[in-house]
Design brief:
The chain is an alpha/beta fold. The chain is built from 10 helices and 10 strands. The two termini are about 25 Å apart. The protein binds adenosine-5'-triphosphate. It comes from Oerskovia rustica.
Length: about 260
């Protein structure tokens, strides 16, 4: 069960990007996120689904502080993050972490797994050197990797194991919320369910808020307690997984549901 008070809230968040391409055929601004309200609670998975370009990744970056909203507010534990000083923002950085789609690019390929996991602990000066070593091996246990994985490079393990390393790194600072942006899309179909089950299991064991982002509504259904459907920068439907699947109110949601189901 989730706690009632949201740990993370987005309030009327807008993000306008300068367009990457020239002006001839495209407007020079992209309203990537257009007035999104969202609440993330501990112990609950909120799935965000929508087609490519609807603003999911931009929203994920806002949630972890990698993208400043053009307007609106981000509230962590009841306090606005945007209006706070650098120290509060650092605490926010510890409390909300992200897992990206492709661990091959998200992890530094020249660092041993041990150093990848230790790095956030060093940066935030958590505990003594011995505490950090202990934490690093605990992190491997949490994600179901053997201790022998400590002394290898990311390229020396499989894609699924690499994503487990990325999840372990996201857990290093004991966050309240993990934002997982298409965390299984770059993986072999055969290991996707294992990684989804790991995330769901960690959410329950550690009482995390989990934000799960995917273009695939079946994958989102598999892991989510609540689902938000995004279309052109807006949330067009939100409800429990059952509500969204059994009684969709929005035409776009119906279109998504009608699309051919895919393997996890
Ligand atoms: N840094 C940026 N500069 C300019 N435009 C951007 C930037 N990031 C995203 N966009 C544009 O904003 C819109 C939303 O992109 P975003 O990546 O958030 O969507 P998405 O739903 O995550 O799609 P995808 O799954 O393809 O990444 C798109 O039109 C994209 O081209």
């Amino acid at each position: 069960m989730s706690d009632d008070a949201p740990v993370l809230e987005l309030k009327d968040v807008h993000v306008v990007h300068k367009a990457r391409t020239g002006k001839l055929f495209r407007p020079d601004r992209v309203h990537a996120v257009a007035g999104v309200d969202m609440a993330v609670r501990r112990g609950e998975t909120i799935g965000i689904v929508g087609e490519s370009g609807c603003g999911k990744s931009t929203l994920a970056k806002v949630m972890v502080g990698l993208q400043a909203p053009t307007s609106g507010d981000v509230v962590f534990d009841g306090r606005s993050v945007l209006k706070r000083n650098a120290r509060t923002r650092k605490e926010f950085g510890r409390a909300i972490s992200i897992v990206f789609q492709d661990p091959s690019t998200a992890l530094n390929g020249r660092m041993l797994v041990r150093d990848i996991l230790r790095d956030p602990l060093d940066v935030h000066q958590i505990g003594s050197p011995r505490d950090r070593e202990r934490r690093v091996s605990e992190l491997l246990d949490l994600v179901g990797l053997p201790q022998s994985a400590l002394d290898v490079l990311p390229s020396q393990v499989s894609g699924g194991q690499r994503q487990r390393v990325a999840i372990a790194r996201a857990l290093a600072l004991d966050p309240d919320v993990i934002v997982a942006d298409e965390p299984t899309s770059a993986l072999d179909v055969s290991v996707r369910a294992q990684v989804l089950n790991l995330l769901t299991d960690l959410k329950a064991r550690l009482n995390l808020g989990l934000v799960f982002i995917s273009h695939d509504i079946q994958t989102v259904r598999y892991v989510s307690d609540r689902i938000a459907v995004m279309y052109f920068g807006k949330v067009v439907e939100e409800g429990t997984a059952e509500e969204v699947f059994d009684r969709p109110t929005n035409d776009y949601t119906r279109t998504l549901l009608g699309a051919a189901p895919t393997l996890l």
